[in-house]
């Protein structure tokens, strides 16, 4: 990326972080497979930095059947034991078990709403929320919407889905545009969201 492209300061100085910021962060996602991937990664991030998770992302992908929620939902004790011995991921027993439970609950949401995408995007009226923050300090850790989604997910049996985790999920999957105003991606994402106007068919 050229130097005249100003980025959000949180990603600067790390190539992997900058690449993620430039290509993925804040881009609206309506595909259930990708939504499950981010939800799983966010739950593992709880208490850790996002860059730690990003560096292990490919390991997570391999370990968790390419984030195929149908497969993850069927993981038994033997598979969980194998994951606990996998040095490439975060070896936290509660988080690993919660990934399996969340996959099962994810499928239940799909059965009820058609897709998980349909369910979660309904919380923001099916279009990205556009913020206009100038500094990192202005960006909230959680919002009323993320608290509402968190509460609903917990009532549906999901684990490790507190309002802060959910707000990070909203930022990552483009439910909210939290690029800073002077970041070159802010306008690009805002423009593409307006251009699309409506999301594609939920899958």
How would you describe this protein?
This protein is mostly helical. The chain has one domain (28-196): Hypothetical protein, domain 2 (Endonuclease III, domain 1). Helices cover 54% and strands 2% of the residues. It has 11 helices and 2 strands; from the N terminus they run ααααααααβααβα. It has helices spanning 15-23, 32-45, 50-55, 57-63, 69-72, 77-84, 93-113, 116-121, 144-155, 163-172, 184-196, and strands spanning 129-130, 176-177. A two-stranded parallel ribbon has the order 1-2. Helix 2 runs antiparallel to helix 7. The chain starts with 14 loop residues before the first helix and ends in a 7-residue tail after the last helix. Residues 197-203 have low confidence and may be disordered.
Brief overview, please?
By secondary structure, this protein is an all-alpha fold.
List its salient traits.
two-stranded parallel ribbon, 203 residues, 2 strands, Endonuclease III, domain 1, mainly alpha
Strand order of the largest sheet: 1-2
Q: Taking all residues together, what is the mean pLDDT?
A: 92
Order of helices and strands: HHHHHHHHEHHEH
- Rounded to an integer in angstroms, the radius of gyration calculated over CA atoms is 17 Å
Return the CATH topology.
Endonuclease III, domain 1
- Proportion of helical residues: 40-55%
Largest sheet report: 2 strands, parallel
Q: Helical element count? A: 11
CATH architecture call: Orthogonal Bundle
Q: Which shape, going by the Cα principal axes?
A: globular
Please give the CATH class.
Answer: Mainly Alpha
- What structural class do helix, strand and pairing data support? mainly alpha
User: How far apart are the termini?
Assistant: 32 Å
Beta-strand share of residues: under 5%
